[in-house]
Amino acid sequence: MSRATRSILLGVALAALLLVSVTFAITIGPANITPVDVWGSVLHHLGLGHSPLSLLRDGIVWQLRLPRVLTAAAVGAGLALSGAVMQALTRNPLADPYLLGLSSGASLGAVAVLLLGVAILLPLAAFLGALLALGLTLLLASSLGRITPSRTVLAGIAVSSLAAAVTSLVIFWTVTGDSYREILGWLLGSLAGARWPAVGIGFAAILIAGLPIMLSGRILDAFAFGDTAAASLGINVPGARWTMLAATALLTGAMVSVSGSIGFVGLILPHAVRLLVGPRHRPLLPLSAIVGAIFLIWADTAARSLFDPRELPVGIVTAIIGAPVFALLLTRRRSAT
Amino acid sequence: MSEADAAAAGLDARRIDLRIDGRLIVDGVDCTVAAGTFSALIGPNGAGKSTLLRVLAAVDRPEAGTVHFGPDDLFALGRRQRARLVGFVEQDSGTELSLSVREVVALGRIPHQGFFGDATAEDHGVIESALDAADVRALAERDVTTLSGGERQRVLLARALAQQPTLLVLDEPSNHLDIAAQLAVLGLLRSLASSGVTVLAALHDLNLASAYCDHVIVLRDGVVFAAGPTAEIITPRLVRAVYGVRATVLEHPQTGRPMVAFGPLD
User: What distance in Å separates the CA atoms of residue A127 and residue A283, rounded to the nearest whole number?
Assistant: First the structure.
Protein backbone atom coordinates (compact mmCIF):
# COMPACT_ATOMS: atom_id res chain seq x y z
CA MET A 1 0.00 0.00 0.00
CA SER A 2 1.42 3.39 -0.94
CA ARG A 3 2.00 6.05 1.68
CA ALA A 4 -0.75 8.14 0.07
CA THR A 5 -3.42 5.44 0.31
CA ARG A 6 -2.34 4.70 3.84
CA SER A 7 -2.66 8.37 4.79
CA ILE A 8 -6.19 8.56 3.41
CA LEU A 9 -7.31 5.38 5.18
CA LEU A 10 -5.70 6.59 8.38
CA GLY A 11 -7.43 9.96 7.98
CA VAL A 12 -10.84 8.31 7.66
CA ALA A 13 -10.15 6.03 10.64
CA LEU A 14 -8.96 8.92 12.79
CA ALA A 15 -11.92 11.11 11.82
CA ALA A 16 -14.22 8.28 12.93
CA LEU A 17 -12.25 7.94 16.14
CA LEU A 18 -12.64 11.69 16.70
CA LEU A 19 -16.42 11.40 16.39
CA VAL A 20 -16.45 8.45 18.79
CA SER A 21 -14.19 10.36 21.19
CA VAL A 22 -16.50 13.38 21.21
CA THR A 23 -19.48 11.13 21.94
CA PHE A 24 -17.92 9.06 24.68
CA ALA A 25 -16.03 11.89 26.38
CA ILE A 26 -19.42 13.59 26.92
CA THR A 27 -20.82 10.50 28.65
CA ILE A 28 -18.01 10.40 31.18
CA GLY A 29 -18.73 11.92 34.57
CA PRO A 30 -21.71 12.04 36.93
CA ALA A 31 -25.29 12.06 35.56
CA ASN A 32 -25.20 8.68 33.74
CA ILE A 33 -25.43 9.86 30.20
CA THR A 34 -25.25 7.30 27.39
CA PRO A 35 -23.93 7.83 23.83
CA VAL A 36 -27.53 7.54 22.58
CA ASP A 37 -28.56 10.32 24.98
CA VAL A 38 -25.73 12.49 23.65
CA TRP A 39 -26.91 12.18 20.06
CA GLY A 40 -30.52 12.53 21.06
CA SER A 41 -29.75 15.80 22.76
CA VAL A 42 -27.62 17.06 19.87
CA LEU A 43 -30.31 16.20 17.30
CA HIS A 44 -32.95 17.83 19.49
CA HIS A 45 -31.00 21.07 19.61
CA LEU A 46 -30.51 20.89 15.86
CA GLY A 47 -34.30 20.80 15.62
CA LEU A 48 -34.70 17.07 15.04
CA GLY A 49 -36.84 15.18 17.52
CA HIS A 50 -37.08 15.43 21.26
CA SER A 51 -34.30 15.14 23.76
CA PRO A 52 -34.37 11.83 25.64
CA LEU A 53 -32.98 13.64 28.68
CA SER A 54 -34.47 15.64 31.51
CA LEU A 55 -33.97 19.37 31.28
CA LEU A 56 -31.12 19.27 33.80
CA ARG A 57 -29.24 16.40 32.16
CA ASP A 58 -29.88 17.85 28.74
CA GLY A 59 -28.30 21.06 30.04
CA ILE A 60 -25.25 19.11 31.20
CA VAL A 61 -24.80 17.73 27.69
CA TRP A 62 -25.67 20.79 25.64
CA GLN A 63 -24.54 23.63 27.90
CA LEU A 64 -21.48 22.12 29.59
CA ARG A 65 -19.93 18.99 28.21
CA LEU A 66 -20.51 19.33 24.48
CA PRO A 67 -19.05 22.84 24.20
CA ARG A 68 -16.16 21.82 26.43
CA VAL A 69 -15.35 18.75 24.36
CA LEU A 70 -15.65 20.70 21.10
CA THR A 71 -13.38 23.43 22.47
CA ALA A 72 -10.85 20.78 23.49
CA ALA A 73 -11.01 19.39 19.96
CA ALA A 74 -10.46 22.82 18.36
CA VAL A 75 -7.64 23.75 20.74
CA GLY A 76 -5.89 20.39 20.33
CA ALA A 77 -6.15 20.62 16.56
CA GLY A 78 -4.95 24.23 16.50
CA LEU A 79 -1.96 23.64 18.77
CA ALA A 80 -0.85 20.50 16.93
CA LEU A 81 -1.13 22.34 13.63
CA SER A 82 0.82 25.34 14.96
CA GLY A 83 3.54 23.02 16.22
CA ALA A 84 3.85 21.19 12.90
CA VAL A 85 4.15 24.51 11.03
CA MET A 86 6.72 25.90 13.47
CA GLN A 87 8.80 22.75 13.15
CA ALA A 88 8.76 23.06 9.37
CA LEU A 89 9.50 26.78 9.19
CA THR A 90 12.31 26.80 11.74
CA ARG A 91 13.61 23.42 10.50
CA ASN A 92 13.79 22.51 14.14
CA PRO A 93 12.03 19.30 15.15
CA LEU A 94 11.81 20.51 18.73
CA ALA A 95 9.93 23.69 17.85
CA ASP A 96 6.41 24.35 19.13
CA PRO A 97 4.05 27.32 19.55
CA TYR A 98 5.87 28.24 22.76
CA LEU A 99 9.17 28.52 21.00
CA LEU A 100 8.89 31.88 19.28
CA GLY A 101 7.17 33.46 22.24
CA LEU A 102 3.70 32.95 20.75
CA SER A 103 2.08 31.31 23.77
CA SER A 104 3.69 33.53 26.37
CA GLY A 105 2.82 36.62 24.34
CA ALA A 106 -0.76 35.44 24.02
CA SER A 107 -0.90 34.70 27.76
CA LEU A 108 0.41 38.16 28.56
CA GLY A 109 -2.20 39.81 26.36
CA ALA A 110 -4.94 37.66 27.86
CA VAL A 111 -3.93 38.21 31.48
CA ALA A 112 -3.65 41.94 30.88
CA VAL A 113 -7.25 42.28 29.65
CA LEU A 114 -8.57 39.84 32.26
CA LEU A 115 -7.17 42.02 34.99
CA LEU A 116 -8.42 45.17 33.34
CA GLY A 117 -11.83 43.55 33.50
CA VAL A 118 -12.54 43.63 29.77
CA ALA A 119 -12.73 39.88 29.23
CA ILE A 120 -14.73 40.41 26.06
CA LEU A 121 -11.52 41.54 24.35
CA LEU A 122 -9.66 38.44 25.45
CA PRO A 123 -9.30 36.65 22.10
CA LEU A 124 -8.19 39.85 20.41
CA ALA A 125 -5.71 40.63 23.17
CA ALA A 126 -4.30 37.10 23.07
CA PHE A 127 -3.89 37.32 19.30
CA LEU A 128 -2.25 40.72 19.54
CA GLY A 129 0.00 39.46 22.33
CA ALA A 130 1.04 36.51 20.19
CA LEU A 131 1.65 38.74 17.19
CA LEU A 132 3.60 41.25 19.26
CA ALA A 133 5.78 38.51 20.73
CA LEU A 134 6.35 37.06 17.26
CA GLY A 135 7.28 40.51 15.94
CA LEU A 136 9.69 41.09 18.82
CA THR A 137 11.25 37.67 18.29
CA LEU A 138 11.82 38.29 14.61
CA LEU A 139 13.09 41.81 15.22
CA LEU A 140 15.58 40.51 17.75
CA ALA A 141 16.59 37.66 15.44
CA SER A 142 17.16 40.02 12.53
CA SER A 143 19.17 42.41 14.67
CA LEU A 144 21.63 39.53 15.11
CA GLY A 145 22.15 39.42 11.34
CA ARG A 146 20.46 37.32 8.70
CA ILE A 147 17.41 35.51 10.14
CA THR A 148 18.35 31.87 10.63
CA PRO A 149 16.41 29.11 12.38
CA SER A 150 18.76 28.96 15.35
CA ARG A 151 18.80 32.75 15.81
CA THR A 152 15.01 32.76 15.64
CA VAL A 153 14.81 30.09 18.32
CA LEU A 154 17.25 31.88 20.64
CA ALA A 155 15.39 35.16 20.20
CA GLY A 156 12.12 33.32 20.89
CA ILE A 157 13.46 32.01 24.18
CA ALA A 158 14.44 35.53 25.23
CA VAL A 159 11.05 36.98 24.28
CA SER A 160 9.19 34.10 25.95
CA SER A 161 11.04 34.62 29.20
CA LEU A 162 10.39 38.34 29.08
CA ALA A 163 6.67 37.89 28.40
CA ALA A 164 6.40 35.29 31.15
CA ALA A 165 8.16 37.63 33.59
CA VAL A 166 5.86 40.52 32.74
CA THR A 167 2.83 38.24 33.10
CA SER A 168 4.01 37.16 36.54
CA LEU A 169 4.67 40.76 37.52
CA VAL A 170 1.20 41.86 36.43
CA ILE A 171 -0.40 39.00 38.36
CA PHE A 172 1.74 39.52 41.43
CA TRP A 173 0.94 43.22 41.49
CA THR A 174 -2.76 43.16 40.89
CA VAL A 175 -4.32 39.84 41.81
CA THR A 176 -5.80 39.25 45.21
CA GLY A 177 -7.68 36.42 46.91
CA ASP A 178 -9.78 34.08 44.80
CA SER A 179 -8.92 35.52 41.44
CA TYR A 180 -5.33 34.40 42.03
CA ARG A 181 -6.43 30.78 41.85
CA GLU A 182 -8.58 31.48 38.83
CA ILE A 183 -5.77 33.16 36.90
CA LEU A 184 -3.28 30.49 37.89
CA GLY A 185 -5.64 27.75 36.70
CA TRP A 186 -6.00 29.58 33.41
CA LEU A 187 -2.25 30.06 32.99
CA LEU A 188 -1.69 26.36 33.52
CA GLY A 189 -4.21 25.68 30.81
CA SER A 190 -7.81 24.82 31.55
CA LEU A 191 -10.97 24.18 29.60
CA ALA A 192 -13.22 24.33 32.68
CA GLY A 193 -14.82 27.57 31.54
CA ALA A 194 -15.31 26.60 27.90
CA ARG A 195 -18.85 27.31 26.66
CA TRP A 196 -20.30 27.95 23.21
CA PRO A 197 -18.46 31.26 22.65
CA ALA A 198 -15.17 29.38 23.16
CA VAL A 199 -16.29 26.81 20.59
CA GLY A 200 -17.01 29.67 18.20
CA ILE A 201 -13.61 31.26 18.67
CA GLY A 202 -11.79 27.95 18.38
CA PHE A 203 -13.52 26.83 15.22
CA ALA A 204 -13.39 30.28 13.64
CA ALA A 205 -9.61 30.25 14.10
CA ILE A 206 -9.39 26.74 12.60
CA LEU A 207 -11.46 27.91 9.65
CA ILE A 208 -9.65 31.23 9.06
CA ALA A 209 -6.05 30.23 9.83
CA GLY A 210 -5.95 26.46 10.21
CA LEU A 211 -7.60 25.49 6.95
CA PRO A 212 -5.30 27.58 4.72
CA ILE A 213 -2.30 26.17 6.62
CA MET A 214 -3.54 22.62 6.11
CA LEU A 215 -3.76 23.25 2.37
CA SER A 216 -0.19 24.59 2.18
CA GLY A 217 1.57 21.29 2.75
CA ARG A 218 3.48 21.39 -0.51
CA ILE A 219 4.94 24.79 0.35
CA LEU A 220 6.19 23.54 3.71
CA ASP A 221 7.65 20.46 1.99
CA ALA A 222 9.70 22.78 -0.20
CA PHE A 223 11.40 24.11 2.98
CA ALA A 224 12.76 20.64 3.85
CA PHE A 225 16.23 21.53 2.57
CA GLY A 226 16.17 25.14 3.72
CA ASP A 227 15.30 28.55 2.35
CA THR A 228 17.58 28.47 -0.67
CA ALA A 229 16.21 25.14 -1.82
CA ALA A 230 12.66 26.43 -1.34
CA ALA A 231 13.47 29.55 -3.36
CA SER A 232 14.97 27.50 -6.18
CA LEU A 233 11.73 25.47 -6.25
CA GLY A 234 9.83 28.66 -7.01
CA ILE A 235 8.53 29.44 -3.49
CA ASN A 236 8.24 33.05 -2.36
CA VAL A 237 10.27 32.36 0.77
CA PRO A 238 9.76 35.54 2.81
CA GLY A 239 6.11 35.77 1.76
CA ALA A 240 5.36 32.16 2.63
CA ARG A 241 7.23 32.40 5.91
CA TRP A 242 5.51 35.56 7.16
CA THR A 243 2.06 34.43 6.05
CA MET A 244 2.47 31.10 7.79
CA LEU A 245 3.89 32.66 10.94
CA ALA A 246 1.05 35.19 11.09
CA ALA A 247 -1.51 32.41 10.61
CA THR A 248 0.20 30.42 13.36
CA ALA A 249 0.13 33.48 15.63
CA LEU A 250 -3.59 33.87 14.99
CA LEU A 251 -4.23 30.20 15.66
CA THR A 252 -2.15 30.10 18.84
CA GLY A 253 -3.57 33.39 20.08
CA ALA A 254 -7.14 32.16 19.60
CA MET A 255 -6.42 28.87 21.35
CA VAL A 256 -4.66 30.51 24.29
CA SER A 257 -7.58 32.92 24.65
CA VAL A 258 -10.04 30.07 25.23
CA SER A 259 -7.85 27.63 27.12
CA GLY A 260 -4.80 29.32 28.61
CA SER A 261 -1.48 27.88 27.56
CA ILE A 262 -1.55 24.14 27.21
CA GLY A 263 1.92 22.75 26.64
CA PHE A 264 3.37 19.80 24.74
CA VAL A 265 0.43 19.26 22.37
CA GLY A 266 2.13 21.27 19.61
CA LEU A 267 5.51 19.74 20.33
CA ILE A 268 4.75 16.04 20.62
CA LEU A 269 1.80 15.24 18.40
CA PRO A 270 3.30 16.16 15.03
CA HIS A 271 6.13 13.73 15.85
CA ALA A 272 3.69 10.96 16.65
CA VAL A 273 1.91 11.53 13.34
CA ARG A 274 5.21 11.61 11.44
CA LEU A 275 5.92 8.13 12.76
CA LEU A 276 2.63 7.02 11.21
CA VAL A 277 2.59 8.75 7.82
CA GLY A 278 6.09 10.13 7.27
CA PRO A 279 7.18 13.75 7.16
CA ARG A 280 5.37 15.03 4.04
CA HIS A 281 3.18 17.91 5.13
CA ARG A 282 0.12 17.31 3.03
CA PRO A 283 -0.88 14.26 5.07
CA LEU A 284 0.96 15.44 8.18
CA LEU A 285 -0.95 18.68 8.75
CA PRO A 286 -4.57 17.46 8.63
CA LEU A 287 -3.72 14.27 10.51
CA SER A 288 -1.86 16.23 13.20
CA ALA A 289 -4.96 18.37 13.61
CA ILE A 290 -7.22 15.33 14.04
CA VAL A 291 -4.84 13.53 16.40
CA GLY A 292 -4.36 16.77 18.39
CA ALA A 293 -8.14 17.06 18.75
CA ILE A 294 -8.53 13.46 19.95
CA PHE A 295 -5.59 13.79 22.32
CA LEU A 296 -6.82 16.95 23.99
CA ILE A 297 -10.39 15.65 24.31
CA TRP A 298 -9.13 12.71 26.34
CA ALA A 299 -6.53 14.72 28.26
CA ASP A 300 -9.27 17.15 29.28
CA THR A 301 -11.67 14.33 30.15
CA ALA A 302 -8.95 12.89 32.38
CA ALA A 303 -8.34 16.33 33.89
CA ARG A 304 -11.96 16.75 34.92
CA SER A 305 -12.74 13.18 35.99
CA LEU A 306 -9.62 11.59 37.49
CA PHE A 307 -9.89 13.34 40.83
CA ASP A 308 -13.58 14.09 40.64
CA PRO A 309 -14.99 16.34 42.09
CA ARG A 310 -11.69 18.23 42.02
CA GLU A 311 -10.50 19.27 38.63
CA LEU A 312 -6.93 19.48 37.36
CA PRO A 313 -5.83 22.12 34.87
CA VAL A 314 -5.51 20.15 31.62
CA GLY A 315 -2.08 21.73 31.08
CA ILE A 316 -0.81 19.60 33.96
CA VAL A 317 -2.15 16.44 32.33
CA THR A 318 -0.57 17.24 28.95
CA ALA A 319 2.73 18.06 30.67
CA ILE A 320 2.70 14.82 32.66
CA ILE A 321 2.19 12.86 29.45
CA GLY A 322 4.26 15.17 27.25
CA ALA A 323 7.44 15.63 29.26
CA PRO A 324 8.46 11.94 29.28
CA VAL A 325 7.58 11.62 25.59
CA PHE A 326 9.69 14.70 24.89
CA ALA A 327 12.59 13.15 26.83
CA LEU A 328 12.18 10.00 24.74
CA LEU A 329 12.31 12.08 21.56
CA LEU A 330 15.51 13.76 22.70
CA THR A 331 17.24 10.46 23.36
CA ARG A 332 16.04 9.03 20.03
CA ARG A 333 17.37 12.11 18.30
CA ARG A 334 20.70 11.74 20.02
CA SER A 335 21.06 8.16 18.88
CA ALA A 336 20.17 9.24 15.34
CA THR A 337 22.86 11.92 15.11
CA MET B 1 15.11 36.14 -32.22
CA SER B 2 14.09 32.62 -33.20
CA GLU B 3 13.83 29.99 -30.53
CA ALA B 4 17.00 28.29 -31.73
CA ASP B 5 18.97 31.54 -31.49
CA ALA B 6 17.59 32.22 -28.06
CA ALA B 7 18.62 28.79 -26.86
CA ALA B 8 22.06 29.25 -28.38
CA ALA B 9 22.45 32.43 -26.35
CA GLY B 10 22.68 30.49 -23.06
CA LEU B 11 23.41 32.28 -19.79
CA ASP B 12 24.46 35.89 -20.02
CA ALA B 13 25.21 37.94 -16.91
CA ARG B 14 26.21 41.59 -17.11
CA ARG B 15 27.77 43.94 -14.54
CA ILE B 16 26.75 41.95 -11.48
CA ASP B 17 27.39 43.66 -8.12
CA LEU B 18 26.53 42.13 -4.78
CA ARG B 19 27.44 43.26 -1.29
CA ILE B 20 27.18 41.18 1.87
CA ASP B 21 27.29 43.12 5.15
CA GLY B 22 28.58 46.15 3.27
CA ARG B 23 31.47 44.28 1.63
CA LEU B 24 31.49 44.03 -2.15
CA ILE B 25 31.70 40.26 -2.77
CA VAL B 26 30.89 40.28 -6.47
CA ASP B 27 32.22 43.32 -8.27
CA GLY B 28 30.99 44.08 -11.76
CA VAL B 29 31.06 40.52 -13.06
CA ASP B 30 30.30 39.79 -16.71
CA CYS B 31 30.07 36.16 -17.68
CA THR B 32 28.45 33.91 -20.25
CA VAL B 33 27.85 30.20 -20.56
CA ALA B 34 26.92 29.00 -24.03
CA ALA B 35 23.78 26.88 -24.24
CA GLY B 36 24.36 23.15 -24.00
CA THR B 37 27.89 23.47 -22.65
CA PHE B 38 29.42 22.60 -19.31
CA SER B 39 31.42 25.41 -17.68
CA ALA B 40 33.41 25.41 -14.48
CA LEU B 41 33.60 28.36 -12.12
CA ILE B 42 36.96 28.18 -10.40
CA GLY B 43 38.90 30.41 -8.03
CA PRO B 44 40.40 30.45 -4.56
CA ASN B 45 38.35 30.25 -1.35
CA GLY B 46 36.57 33.51 -0.68
CA ALA B 47 36.68 34.63 -4.31
CA GLY B 48 32.89 34.99 -4.30
CA LYS B 49 32.03 31.84 -6.26
CA SER B 50 29.07 30.76 -4.13
CA THR B 51 27.69 34.29 -3.99
CA LEU B 52 27.94 34.68 -7.75
CA LEU B 53 26.34 31.27 -8.37
CA ARG B 54 23.34 32.20 -6.20
CA VAL B 55 22.83 35.25 -8.40
CA LEU B 56 23.29 33.30 -11.64
CA ALA B 57 20.74 30.74 -10.40
CA ALA B 58 18.46 33.71 -9.63
CA VAL B 59 18.16 32.73 -5.97
CA ASP B 60 19.61 36.04 -4.77
CA ARG B 61 18.92 39.32 -6.52
CA PRO B 62 22.08 41.35 -7.25
CA GLU B 63 22.32 45.03 -6.34
CA ALA B 64 23.15 45.85 -9.91
CA GLY B 65 23.36 43.98 -13.17
CA THR B 66 21.22 41.63 -15.21
CA VAL B 67 21.04 37.89 -15.71
CA HIS B 68 19.55 36.62 -18.96
CA PHE B 69 19.04 33.07 -20.01
CA GLY B 70 18.23 32.89 -23.70
CA PRO B 71 15.62 35.58 -24.26
CA ASP B 72 14.51 35.69 -20.61
CA ASP B 73 15.57 38.14 -17.93
CA LEU B 74 15.67 35.66 -15.04
CA PHE B 75 14.68 38.24 -12.44
CA ALA B 76 11.73 39.41 -14.51
CA LEU B 77 10.22 35.92 -14.70
CA GLY B 78 7.65 34.67 -12.23
CA ARG B 79 9.11 32.48 -9.49
CA ARG B 80 7.51 29.27 -10.67
CA GLN B 81 8.31 29.92 -14.28
CA ARG B 82 11.93 30.54 -13.31
CA ALA B 83 12.02 27.36 -11.24
CA ARG B 84 10.95 25.40 -14.32
CA LEU B 85 13.92 26.87 -16.18
CA VAL B 86 16.72 26.93 -13.60
CA GLY B 87 17.83 24.16 -11.24
CA PHE B 88 20.20 24.91 -8.38
CA VAL B 89 22.13 22.43 -6.26
CA GLU B 90 23.61 23.93 -3.12
CA GLN B 91 26.74 22.84 -1.39
CA ASP B 92 26.17 20.57 1.63
CA SER B 93 22.47 21.01 2.04
CA GLY B 94 20.65 18.58 4.26
CA THR B 95 17.37 18.01 5.99
CA GLU B 96 16.08 16.78 9.34
CA LEU B 97 13.05 15.19 7.73
CA SER B 98 13.06 11.47 7.12
CA LEU B 99 11.80 11.79 3.56
CA SER B 100 12.39 8.90 1.20
CA VAL B 101 14.72 9.53 -1.71
CA ARG B 102 11.78 9.36 -4.12
CA GLU B 103 9.91 11.98 -2.05
CA VAL B 104 12.94 14.27 -2.15
CA VAL B 105 13.17 13.95 -5.91
CA ALA B 106 9.43 14.60 -6.15
CA LEU B 107 10.02 18.03 -4.56
CA GLY B 108 11.53 19.01 -7.90
CA ARG B 109 8.04 18.79 -9.43
CA ILE B 110 6.66 21.55 -7.18
CA PRO B 111 7.17 24.34 -9.74
CA HIS B 112 5.29 22.24 -12.31
CA GLN B 113 2.29 21.51 -10.09
CA GLY B 114 -0.65 23.67 -9.13
CA PHE B 115 -1.27 24.64 -5.51
CA PHE B 116 -3.58 21.69 -5.01
CA GLY B 117 -2.04 19.72 -7.85
CA ASP B 118 -1.35 16.10 -7.19
CA ALA B 119 1.41 14.27 -8.97
CA THR B 120 0.27 13.38 -12.48
CA ALA B 121 1.43 10.42 -14.53
CA GLU B 122 3.82 12.81 -16.25
CA ASP B 123 5.27 13.88 -12.90
CA HIS B 124 5.84 10.26 -11.93
CA GLY B 125 7.55 9.62 -15.26
CA VAL B 126 9.89 12.58 -14.79
CA ILE B 127 10.69 11.54 -11.21
CA GLU B 128 11.55 8.01 -12.32
CA SER B 129 13.83 9.22 -15.13
CA ALA B 130 15.54 11.66 -12.75
CA LEU B 131 16.19 8.75 -10.36
CA ASP B 132 17.73 6.82 -13.25
CA ALA B 133 19.75 9.73 -14.63
CA ALA B 134 21.38 10.46 -11.27
CA ASP B 135 21.86 6.74 -10.68
CA VAL B 136 19.91 6.68 -7.42
CA ARG B 137 17.13 4.28 -8.37
CA ALA B 138 18.55 1.67 -5.99
CA LEU B 139 18.17 4.21 -3.16
CA ALA B 140 14.60 5.25 -4.03
CA GLU B 141 12.96 3.90 -0.87
CA ARG B 142 15.83 4.84 1.47
CA ASP B 143 15.47 7.53 4.15
CA VAL B 144 17.47 10.50 2.85
CA THR B 145 18.86 11.32 6.32
CA THR B 146 20.69 7.98 6.35
CA LEU B 147 22.59 8.46 3.08
CA SER B 148 26.30 9.10 2.71
CA GLY B 149 27.47 12.50 1.45
CA GLY B 150 28.02 11.20 -2.08
CA GLU B 151 24.63 9.50 -2.23
CA ARG B 152 22.89 12.61 -0.93
CA GLN B 153 24.64 14.79 -3.49
CA ARG B 154 23.34 12.58 -6.29
CA VAL B 155 19.83 12.65 -4.81
CA LEU B 156 19.87 16.46 -4.72
CA LEU B 157 21.03 16.42 -8.31
CA ALA B 158 18.10 14.15 -9.15
CA ARG B 159 15.75 16.61 -7.43
CA ALA B 160 17.14 19.41 -9.59
CA LEU B 161 16.74 17.21 -12.70
CA ALA B 162 13.09 16.60 -11.79
CA GLN B 163 12.60 20.33 -12.29
CA GLN B 164 13.52 19.64 -15.93
CA PRO B 165 15.77 22.70 -15.99
CA THR B 166 17.46 23.99 -19.11
CA LEU B 167 20.01 25.78 -16.91
CA LEU B 168 21.61 23.84 -14.08
CA VAL B 169 23.80 25.62 -11.53
CA LEU B 170 25.75 23.65 -8.95
CA ASP B 171 27.94 24.75 -6.05
CA GLU B 172 30.84 22.32 -5.65
CA PRO B 173 28.89 19.20 -6.57
CA SER B 174 31.99 17.04 -6.14
CA ASN B 175 32.83 18.22 -2.64
CA HIS B 176 33.33 15.45 -0.05
CA LEU B 177 32.85 12.74 -2.66
CA ASP B 178 35.26 9.87 -3.20
CA ILE B 179 36.96 9.78 -6.56
CA ALA B 180 34.55 7.35 -8.20
CA ALA B 181 31.57 9.40 -7.05
CA GLN B 182 33.23 12.60 -8.30
CA LEU B 183 33.75 11.09 -11.72
CA ALA B 184 30.19 9.78 -11.76
CA VAL B 185 28.69 13.19 -10.93
CA LEU B 186 30.84 15.10 -13.39
CA GLY B 187 30.23 12.49 -16.08
CA LEU B 188 26.51 12.95 -15.55
CA LEU B 189 26.82 16.74 -15.84
CA ARG B 190 28.86 16.27 -19.02
CA SER B 191 26.15 14.10 -20.57
CA LEU B 192 23.41 16.53 -19.47
CA ALA B 193 25.27 19.28 -21.32
CA SER B 194 25.47 17.05 -24.40
CA SER B 195 21.71 16.64 -24.23
CA GLY B 196 21.26 20.42 -24.34
CA VAL B 197 21.21 21.52 -20.70
CA THR B 198 23.44 24.50 -19.91
CA VAL B 199 25.55 23.52 -16.90
CA LEU B 200 27.64 25.74 -14.64
CA ALA B 201 29.39 24.29 -11.60
CA ALA B 202 31.82 25.72 -9.08
CA LEU B 203 34.73 23.30 -8.83
CA HIS B 204 37.85 23.28 -6.70
CA ASP B 205 39.68 20.54 -8.53
CA LEU B 206 41.38 21.98 -11.61
CA ASN B 207 41.94 18.49 -12.99
CA LEU B 208 38.26 17.67 -12.86
CA ALA B 209 37.47 21.00 -14.50
CA SER B 210 40.05 20.26 -17.20
CA ALA B 211 38.76 16.77 -17.79
CA TYR B 212 35.06 17.54 -18.03
CA CYS B 213 34.38 21.20 -18.80
CA ASP B 214 34.18 23.01 -22.13
CA HIS B 215 34.85 26.41 -20.63
CA VAL B 216 36.27 27.83 -17.45
CA ILE B 217 35.44 31.08 -15.67
CA VAL B 218 38.08 32.14 -13.16
CA LEU B 219 36.94 34.34 -10.30
CA ARG B 220 39.34 36.13 -7.98
CA ASP B 221 38.43 38.75 -5.38
CA GLY B 222 34.96 39.10 -6.82
CA VAL B 223 36.04 39.86 -10.39
CA VAL B 224 36.43 37.65 -13.43
CA PHE B 225 40.14 37.11 -13.82
CA ALA B 226 39.91 35.07 -17.01
CA ALA B 227 37.32 33.12 -18.98
CA GLY B 228 37.42 30.94 -22.06
CA PRO B 229 37.94 27.42 -23.41
CA THR B 230 39.43 25.15 -20.76
CA ALA B 231 42.72 24.41 -22.52
CA GLU B 232 43.41 28.11 -23.12
CA ILE B 233 42.64 29.16 -19.59
CA ILE B 234 44.19 26.52 -17.38
CA THR B 235 47.85 27.36 -17.85
CA PRO B 236 50.84 27.45 -15.49
CA ARG B 237 50.73 31.26 -15.61
CA LEU B 238 47.10 31.40 -14.54
CA VAL B 239 47.51 28.89 -11.72
CA ARG B 240 50.46 30.90 -10.50
CA ALA B 241 48.62 34.22 -10.74
CA VAL B 242 45.34 33.08 -9.16
CA TYR B 243 46.44 30.54 -6.57
CA GLY B 244 50.12 31.48 -6.11
CA VAL B 245 51.05 27.89 -6.88
CA ARG B 246 53.61 26.63 -9.40
CA ALA B 247 52.13 24.12 -11.80
CA THR B 248 52.91 22.23 -14.97
CA VAL B 249 50.15 21.47 -17.43
CA LEU B 250 50.51 18.08 -19.09
CA GLU B 251 48.48 16.20 -21.62
CA HIS B 252 46.39 13.43 -20.11
CA PRO B 253 47.85 10.16 -21.42
CA GLN B 254 44.42 8.63 -22.03
CA THR B 255 42.12 11.51 -22.92
CA GLY B 256 44.55 14.08 -24.29
CA ARG B 257 42.88 16.76 -22.17
CA PRO B 258 44.96 19.15 -20.04
CA MET B 259 46.10 17.86 -16.68
CA VAL B 260 47.64 19.96 -13.93
CA ALA B 261 50.60 18.79 -11.85
CA PHE B 262 51.31 21.07 -8.89
CA GLY B 263 54.78 21.91 -7.65
CA PRO B 264 55.57 22.47 -3.97
CA LEU B 265 54.80 25.91 -2.50
CA ASP B 266 57.76 28.32 -2.64
Answer: 27
